[in-house]
Amino acid sequence: FGGHMGSGAGLIYLDDEWETPLGNLEFDRDLSQALKNKANLEVETFETGDNTVEVQLPFIKYFFPNSRLVALRAPHSMKAVSLGERLVELARDQGKTLKVFGSTDLTHYGPSYGFTPHGSGRKALNWMRDTNDKGCISHGSARAPGARRQKPKRLQRRRGSGRNCRLPVPWIESGQAAGLLYVLGYYARRFLCGLRGHCLLISF
Hints:
Oligomer: single chain
Mean pLDDT: 76
Number of strands: 10
Strand content: 25-35%
């Protein structure tokens, strides 16, 4: 599951295989096509330049080298939950098990984003990591059935506005294990600097 979307139905890739630095990943065309039809998804291609699915591929190939791929971009809304539920139903119908990877951007902080409510330096970093990003991750990864249906949390991201925080992968109820990778990146260019949080959720 990737993101960078609005509140549309979602986008799915229907390729045969993708190349990674660790070898090719084969698609599960039957499951992908069934999900496209059931969820009324549009077909996506790499020509859009979106990276939210692409960045996960080496992790998948390394940890689950023989798995086949279903790749999609989930909407930035509660529709993501329904999309995940449909995927689970279809996989069960086809007698398949799922290993779910989902990535999302979190806070974009700094002068280049016009968003510095807590100044700069360590104070800003601590607020971003321990309050804003942590709160979003805790909300989005809640596994209790009731929590999965809550409205998205507001994530402070830019000056004067909020942003819905819905992690693009809903937790799969039947999952037996889960993991989380959080990365806080810093970049600096001439006259521009900023912090960006990213999260990878895994359920299998």
